[in-house]
Design brief:
The complex is a heterodimer of chains A (561) and B (290).
Chain A (H helix, E strand, L loop, with lengths): L24 E11 L8 E11 L3 E5 L6 H9 L7 E9 L2 E5 L2 E2 L2 H7 L4 E4 L3 H4 L6 H12 L4 H14 L5 H6 L7 H13 L5 E5 L7 H18 L2 E6 L2 H7 L2 E6 L2 E7 H6 L4 H9 L13 E18 L5 E16 L2 E5 L6 H8 L7 E6 L2 E2 L5 H4 L6 E4 L13 H11 L4 H14 L16 H13 L5 E5 L7 H18 L2 E6 L2 H7 L2 E6 L2 E7 H6 L4 H9 L3 H4 L3
Parallel strand pairs in A: 3-9, 3-10, 7-8, 8-9, 14-19, 14-20, 17-18, 18-19
Antiparallel strand pairs in A: 1-2, 1-4, 4-5, 5-6, 10-11, 12-13, 12-15, 15-16, 20-21
Helix pairs in contact in A: 4-5, 5-7, 7-8, 8-20, 14-15, 14-16, 15-16, 16-17
Chain B lengths: L2 H7 L1 H18 L23 E6 L5 E6 L10 H36 L1 H15 L3 H12 L3 H28 L2 H8 L4 H37 L11 H9 L7 H28 L8
Antiparallel strand pairs in B: 1-2
Helix pairs in contact in B: 2-3, 2-10, 3-4, 3-6, 3-8, 3-10, 4-6, 5-6, 6-8, 7-8, 8-9, 8-10, 9-10
Classes of the chains: A alpha/beta (561), B mainly alpha (290).
């Protein structure tokens, strides 16, 4: 299907389409090579990389973690991390030499250029901003360094740019501290800082990855608008093919430091030439749910009615300030069924999940594991029942104890529920076969595994105590798409074999569409809509669901028929 | 790369270890390094200069040829012998104090950090203890329990416990919310198992570092207590005691103060160096980025 001739003309790298007027090349990288330290898994972070971006164009660099895409961004900014060294290459920025034969321009010149000729937007706006200065002061500092403007002019410029990036009430924002703003607002501040001096090149390193879908859509639109306004070149780094489809003019696919494929967005997304690009595109789950499955049904293995959680904070006078994180949430998970809970950050979906596994105590409502009410059982009485409901967390780097062999982690649960050591070891070995890791790997430590392998180990650890229900809290959100696909396949396989019920918490609608039989949509601590996946995705009843679905990056565009 | 390798590449760790190894050898081999009984007095060698040779008569009547490398004090005791045997006391006090303070602080800190209700009680106690000057607590304890090696160790260790408790509590509170600890709870592991297998091993690195600093300050505090006459009995050879006795005739024979100090300073320096190096390797939060 990919080899069919497409209706639009396909241009090869060597023959760019004729431009109405000669375009100005803003960023020109030639033969860049960056070496990794001696003990790394490969010799080069980047090998023989050529990039050109013209004014007004957006180049998206796509790749999984470790592909070297962020290294490129830091090299261009002259901010290479310690241990990394450029060994070859030339970089020119709007006609000026940034790097000549692997030697960077002097630091003083680079510093003058950062902000004025190249701006950068980072992934995590909270860490990119200084928490002890107000947002206005931080932008002001940048202006003081790079311009001779008097104070009132600087302030006028800052208020104007805050207004331009559509921050509400710029005067108030000027005096606000980063923690007083939402994630999206913080990212707007960072963007404002990056563009206030109208740089010719804007580097965005996963600027929307830490944000909710609706916020992500707004930020992407903003970046696109600003680019048209300022006719700057944008180097946009992302791992999300949906985002690429949304904003890219040109796409470059990277894998382990090499350029796999490069070309106009239309061509790369619709008629990719390389197998790796196809794999990346295919791994992106679509928004169309598969046809409903036959479910065994039966009594609920895990159910909740009217569960709520209210945190009470007291001020210095001891007055209670209740904060309702979750209100009146109900769910039932049956044998062999996957129930998805979707929502943006702060929607209470994680609180719900943690109440269900009794990691936190609900303040109202009832929770049943099988037939047993557990919402108010003390930890001691709960322990013998814990084998029924197990959990898999989001971050595979932190969900295994780094100081214990994975074997001992895998055997712990089974032994806690009365299995002998030899039998537990045997169970662990069988589970290793299932998750396709060598049995001998049981004696290794977590840091010797990749993120995807660790997540498989976390699933194996949960399955080792033969649960009836698995609660997966954003279990694939921290993983690359190709790994994500493997983990989802593993979950489906285990579910089919053991008849597990799965409560799947995620912010990723595409994953929910593919995996879940039923979906619960949460917003601000309450369930706003629920129903069979196909119904919720194709005929959303609630406004919030519709907005959520509309904001999801153009996933369908990235998928070819 | 393993931690051991990283440790060995750190020059501060290597230097600290080397100095401590030499001191340890001197302490262990003290009887064979040209010394005699450090408490033996010979009235014919009172306050002799460094390097004096002569035939010493020991309390049991034996005689031996001896060189007073560091001279003698005003009771006719050999400074070299006393300093070397004092090394044993100092290193022992440092090690035992660190172990005791870390163990005690660790227990309290883990309880306070993991169990909310215990926290309120333990931490108020600890805050109270922190408000009393360390030397005052030490002096009181020695006065109450009498001056002996175990008392002195206890007296130096107890004031250190609050700081360790605070450190451990903070570490445990951070680790308690880690997903692997929550996973262990979901696996029905008991609180004791979680504390022992999931929390303690992950809090160990900063504790070891803290332990070295406690050891260094314990060596100093022991010397201070002895110097003030509040530590071990005057006849026990410790660096502090030697200096205290040498103080009165510092003008005539400064060696009595200088020589123990020449051992004390490198000891404390070496332990601190070792601690700094350990922190750089084990506790990456504070280390210079490699």
């Amino acid at each position: 299907m990919n080899t069919l001739t497409s209706p639009t003309p396909v241009f090869l790298d060597s023959a760019p389409p004729p431009q109405p007027r000669p375009a100005e090349v803003i960023l020109d990288v030639q033969g860049l090579q960056v070496a990794l330290p001696a003990d790394a898994d490969r010799p080069f972070a980047i090998e023989h990389l050529d990039v050109r971006i013209e004014a007004g164009q957006t180049l998206c660099i796509v790749g999984e973690s470790g592909s070297g895409k962020s290294v490129l961004a830091t090299t261009v900014m002259g901010l290479l991390a310690k241990g990394l060294t450029a060994t070859q290459g030339h970089i020119r920025l709007a006609g000026e030499t940034l790097m000549d034969q692997a030697r960077l321009a002097p630091e003083s010149r680079l510093r003058a250029w950062r902000g004025t000729r190249m701006g950068m937007v980072f992934q995590e706006p909270m860490t990119a901003l200084n928490p002890v200065h107000s947002c206005g002061e931080q932008v002001d500092e940048l202006l003081r360094t790079h311009t001779q403007w008097p104070a009132h002019e600087r302030k006028a410029h800052i208020l104007a740019i805050f207004d331009r990036v559509r921050l509400p009430d710029p005067k108030r924002i000027y005096d606000s501290y980063p923690h007083q703003l939402s994630g999206g607002q913080r990212q707007r501040i960072v963007i404002a800082m990056a563009i206030i001096l109208k740089p010719r090149l804007l580097i965005c390193d996963e600027p929307t990855t830490a944000l909710d879908v609706t916020t992500q859509a707004e930020i992407l639109r903003l970046i696109a608008e600003l680019q048209v306004e300022q006719r700057s070149a944008v180097l946009f780094i992302t791992h999300d093919m949906g985002v690429v489809a949304e904003i890219a003019d040109q796409v470059m696919v990277m894998h382990r430091g090499r350029v796999v494929e490069q070309g106009p967005a239309e061509q790369v997304l619709h008629t990719p030439r390389e197998a790796y690009t196809r794999m990346l595109l295919d791994a992106v789950p679509g928004m169309t749910p598969p046809p409903p499955r036959e479910l065994p049904g039966g009594r609920a293995l895990l159910s909740a009615t009217g569960v709520g959680k209210t945190y009470v904070r007291r001020d210095w006078l001891g007055r209670a300030k209740p904060n309702t994180a979750l209100h009146d949430a109900s769910v039932a998970v049956h044998r062999g069924e996957t129930v998805g809970v979707v929502g943006e950050s702060g929607s209470g979906k994680s609180t719900f999940a943690r109440c269900m596994i009794r990691l936190i105590d609900p303040t109202e409502g009832s929770i049943l594991w099988g037939e047993t009410p557990v919402h108010s059982l003390p930890e001691g009485r709960l322990r013998p029942l814990r084998s029924r409901v197990q959990v898999v967390f989001q971050d595979p780097n932190r969900s295994l104890n780094p100081r214990r062999t994975v074997g001992s982690s895998l055997m712990e649960g089974a032994m806690n529920f009365g299995m002998g050591e030899r039998q537990a070891r045997q169970t662990a070995e069988e589970l290793m076969d299932r998750i396709q890791l060598p049995r001998t790997a049981l004696d290794r430590y977590p840091h010797q595994f990749s993120g995807g392998q660790r997540q498989r180990l976390a699933i194996a650890r949960a399955v080792a105590c033969q649960p009836q229900v698995l609660v997966a809290d954003e279990a694939v959100s921290a993983l690359d798409v190709s790994v994500q696909a493997q983990i989802l396949a593993l979950l489906r396989e285990i579910q089919a074999d053991l008849g597990l019920g799965i409560l799947f918490i995620t912010h990723d609608l595409r994953v929910a569409a593919q995996l879940c039989d039923r979906v619960i949509v949460m917003s601000q601590g309450e369930i706003v809509e629920q129903g069979p996946t196909a119904q919720v995705f194709l005929q959303p009843a609630h406004d919030y669901t519709r907005r959520l679905l509309a904001a999801a990056p153009r996933a369908e565009l990235a998928r070819r028929a | 790369m393993s931690n051991w390798n990283k440790l060995w590449r750190n020059s501060a760790v290597r230097l600290g270890c080397a100095v401590l190894a030499v001191l340890l050898l001197l302490a262990v081999l003290a009887p064979w390094l040209g010394t005699f009984d450090p408490s033996a007095m010979d009235p014919s060698f009172i306050s002799v200069a460094a390097g004096t040779r002569g035939e010493v008569t020991l309390p049991d009547g034996q005689t031996l040829q001896h060189v007073f490398w560091m001279g003698s004090d005003n009771f006719g005791r050999d400074i070299w012998s006393r300093v070397l045997f004092g090394t044993r006391v100092s290193l022992g006090v440092g090690l035992c104090t660190a172990v005791l303070a870390i163990t005690g602080g660790c227990l309290l800190g883990m309880l306070a950090g993991y169990f909310r209700p215990v926290d309120a009680v333990v931490m108020r106690l600890v805050d109270g203890m922190m408000a009393i000057p360390a030397v005052l607590v030490a002096i009181t304890l020695v006065a109450m329990l009498g001056a002996s090696l175990p008392t002195v160790i206890l007296a130096i260790a107890v004031p250190e416990i609050p700081r360790v408790t605070r450190l451990v509590r903070a570490l445990v509170m951070g680790l308690r919310d880690e997903p692997f600890v929550e996973a262990a709870r979901a696996l029905a592991s008991s609180n004791l198992t979680i504390l022992w297998r999931d929390i303690l091993p992950n809090a160990l690195a900063p504790l070891i570092v803290q332990g070295t600093f406690i050891a260094a300050s314990a060596v100093l505090t022991e010397a201070i207590l002895s110097f003030l006459g509040l530590g071990l009995p005057a006849d026990v050879p410790t660096w502090g005691n030697i200096m205290a006795e040498g103080r009165v005739q510092f003008a005539q024979s400064p060696g009595n103060v200088m020589f123990p100090a020449l051992f004390l300073v490198p000891t404390v320096l070496a332990i601190n160096l070792l601690g700094d190096g350990l922190r750089d390797v084990l506790d990456p939060k504070f280390s210079k980025r490699a």
